[in-house]
Amino acid sequence: MIKSFNQEECSQLLADNYVGQLAYIYQGRPFILLMTYFFDANKTIICYSDEGQRILAMRKNSAVSLQVLKLKDVDNWSSALAHGTYE
Fold first, then answer.
1. pLDDT tens readout for residues 42-60
2. How far is CA 30 from CA 8, 25, 27, 33, in A?
3. For the domain bounded by 7-85, which CATH number is listed?
């Protein structure tokens, strides 16, 4: 059964996990990579990375998304997508 999450359910999914897929734009094309993250009490997503392609790309275009998936099996899963700004 497909069901949309409300804001609190999305926040809970983000808080309960620590691995997600970070999406950003580099040279006009979308890139997605697996990242560990921390979702804090202020509802801020914190990731750490060395200086490299993704950091340089996000400094030029700060629009990012993080998708988190909780997968039990092919028929039983949850997903949340958070849009934000790289700082």
1. 889 999 888 888 999 999 9
2. 28, 5, 8, 10
3. 2.30.110.10
